Amino acid sequence: MDLCIRPIGEVDEDVLTFLRDKLKCVFGCCKILIPMEVPMDAFNPERNQFNSTAILLRIKPLCEIVLGVTEVDLYADRLNFVFGEAEVGGNRAIISLKRLRPEFYGDKPNDALLKLRALKEAMHEIGHVLGLLHCNDPKCVMHFSNSIIDTDIKDWRYCARCRTVLERKGIKINI
Asked: Which tens digits make up the pLDDT trace of 69-111?
């Protein structure tokens, strides 16, 4: 599987490298592309957030799957915020590190926790690109995260049911 990470704006290099290495282990291939600018026309000044769909649509599909990673706060229509968004069955996804950072919630910075949360959101959005929908298992990475608590509860891996769905589609993963 040809998987690429596309930084959007200035993004923490340690997190990008961590994601690349972990996703390469899981999917067999992952590289980091050159960054793209954050599209300022996706900014909503009333919300002080960026529309995730508007950014997602500007990510050029230079690989089979392209995961955009940004530091800006994202929202989608009818939602206060999103950790990420993906084209279900498409080839583009995006995650934001903004609300994955412990300091967003008034806690001390914690790089290990940030990286784990970023991996969970990356695996979740890539799962959508691969055709997976939300899972009822609260421990599965495909479970919907309504808050950071939900993200912290779930594992970074797909549950047995979601792995079976991927296997039936001929998608081989190493977890």
From this structure: 999 999 998 899 999 999 998 999 999 999 999 999 999 999 9
Neighbouring-strand partners of residue 96: 70
Domains of the chain: 3-133 (3.40.390.10)
Upper half-sphere CA count for residue 21 (Cβ side, 13 Å): 8
Q: What is the mean pLDDT of residues 100-126?
A: 98
User: 102-108 long-range contacts, Cβ below 8 Å, gap at least 24?
Assistant: 105/148
Active site residue 37: no
**112 — pLDDT class (breaks 50, 70, 90):** very high
Strand, helix or coil for residue 119: helix
- Residues 6+ away with beta carbon under 8 Å from 88: 128, 129, 131, 133
**Active-site pick, 85, 87, 121, 125:** 125
Q: What pLDDT does residue 115 have? A: 98
Is 77:53 a contact under the CB 8 Å cutoff? yes
